[in-house]
Amino acid sequence: EDFLNLIFKAMMKDSLNSSHPVSATVQSSEQIEEMFDALSYIKGASLLLMLKHYLTKDVFQAGIQVYLHNHNYGSAQSDDLWDSMNEITNGTLDVKKLMKTWILHKGFPLVTVVRKGKIISVQQDKFLCHVEPENWTSDASYLWHIPLTYVTSTCNFTHCTNAYLLDQKSGM
Q: Does the keyword Protease apply (predicted)?
């Protein structure tokens, strides 16, 4: 419950146009200090949980083990973690490409789901809580790779989970 409350607080901050990405190039020590805030840590943790749920616990854990083995007693960059996950997925999913859409963009998407009979369509747009005209910038190019999981009448969370990767503005 505490973590969920922290996630909602971080999302509120991340929904402002004045937010910042989880990962960014910095030029000064002051910029480094600004990057290490609750938003970076809580959003980062949430993104890892999202990835773990999408990949499954076993695949995610295997990727972490590869990462730790490859960088034992050394330094690493964020791409190194995604590369380790890519080793485990054997090219079936480009984890680096998926995660870069989350860590390099500020904010998060609003996913709209519309059902017409048996047809489900989904669309993503950048979510902004308060648009401050003096700080507003167009984020029309923002496109997240959103792992969506769902259940059907023949498949529920107790015995299977369906997954869909929304990597375009809209999909079916």
A: yes
Q: Strand pairing partners for 164?
A: 148
Residue 34 to residue 93: CA distance in whole angstroms: 32
| CA dihedral of 166, 164, 99, 2, whole degrees rounded to 10 | 110
Pick among 3.30.450.20, 2.60.40.10, 2.60.40.1910, 3.90.1720.10: CATH of 108-171: 2.60.40.1910
Of 85, 91, 129, 111, residue with least CA distance to 168: 111
pTM score, whole prediction = 0.84
CATH code for the domain defined by 3-104:
1.10.390.10
The helix or strand, by DSSP H or E, that contains position 113, with its residue range, turns out to be strand 109-116
Q: Are the C-beta atoms of 153 and 108 separated by less than 8 Å?
A: no
For residue range 62-92, list pLDDT tens digits in order. 999 999 999 999 988 889 999 999 999 998 9
